[in-house]
Design goal:
This protein has two domains: 3-131, Rossmann fold, CATH 3.40.50; 135-254, Arc Repressor Mutant, subunit A, CATH 1.10.10. 41% of the residues lie in helices and 25% in strands. The protein has helices at residues 11-23, 33-36, 41-49, 67-77, 91-99, 112-131, 186-197, 205-214, 221-237; strands at residues 3-7, 27-30, 55-59, 61-62, 65-66, 82-86, 104-107, 135-144, 147-156, 161-164, 180-183, 202-203, 244-247, 251-254. The strands form four sheets. Strands 2-1-3-6-7 form a five-stranded parallel sheet, sandwiched between helices. Strand 9 (147-156) and strand 10 form a beta hairpin. Helix 3 (41-49) crosses helix 4.
């Protein structure tokens, strides 16, 4: 299920959009103005990154913050597509939205069905292209000693390896993980692939083992534990620390 973020300051519209999207099979998250009141654009971007969204609906006219600036900063840090929504229906505003990283532009007032059509078009274009790639790019914000540490890596499926500090649309910033390369075993590669495709969600041990069995890699409970320990160790060897967390009684989560 695709998760859609709604950054809209109008409460009635925000709640209506959330309800409508949920009714159409999406997971929707309306981010209320109180959650970002007084925040700087970079702080709002951190909030958005923590949501692990598949698409963001972003109003240009946010209180106390420039929606175009937020769009630009967010797209510098994430590949998540953005659809700008605004009451300013003119060519200049649309051009500014696209130049600041928006994937599409929808003017208010709009028919919700038209918005869904725009969303589906963007999602199909972005994630179909990602699905055809043999690389999975992971960006994380890990809390270390009370502060957030940005780290990223690329899982190269065809080469069976992880490249730390992979190519990014933005700079890694202070405290980012150093570059490095590590080779993975077949099981480790598939486990990380499963977690990366479900980033932010908890994946149960049974789901991981079932998917490995479906790919003719026969592992039992103990083998999975050993492979997970080795995988975490290999990631730490190239500076990717705390990337995978164990949720006792539930499974594993790639943050």
């Amino acid at each position: 299920m695709k998760k859609i973020g709604i950054l809209e300051d109008d409460e009635a519209m925000g709640k209506e959009l959330q309800y409508y999207l949920e009714s159409n099979g999406y997971e929707a998250r309306w981010i209320e103005p109180a959650e970002y009141a007084g925040k700087k654009p970079e702080e709002l971007v951190k909030l958005l990154l923590g949501e692990n969204l598949h698409l963001l609906l972003l109003d240009i006219g946010l209180p106390g913050v420039n929606g175009l600036h937020v769009c630009k900063e967010f797209r510098n840090a994430s590949d998540c597509p953005v659809i700008m929504i605004t009451s300013k229906n003119d060519d200049l505003t649309e051009l500014m939205a696209i130049n600041n990283g928006a994937d599409d532009f929808v003017a208010k007032p709009f028919n919700p069905q038209i918005l869904i059509a725009h969303m589906e078009s963007v999602l199909k274009r972005v994630y179909k292209a990602a699905g055809n790639s043999d690389e999975l790019h992971v960006v994380q914000e890990i809390e270390v000693e009370g502060s957030l540490r940005r780290q990223e890596f690329v899982l190269e499926l065809s080469k069976g390896r992880v490249v730390a500090g992979g190519a990014s649309k933005g700079e890694a910033g202070h405290g980012a993980a150093p570059g490095g390369v590590v080779e993975l075993s077949k099981n480790e590669l598939q486990i990380l692939k499963i977690l990366a495709k479900n980033q932010g969600n908890i994946v149960s041990r049974d789901d991981i083992m079932n998917e490995l069995w479906d790919n003719c890699m026969f592992v039992d409970d103990n083998t999975l534990t050993v492979n997970m320990t080795r995988l975490k160790g290999k990631l730490e060897d190239i500076g990717i620390t705390g990337a995978i967390v164990t949720k006792r009684g539930m499974g594993y989560q790639l943050l």
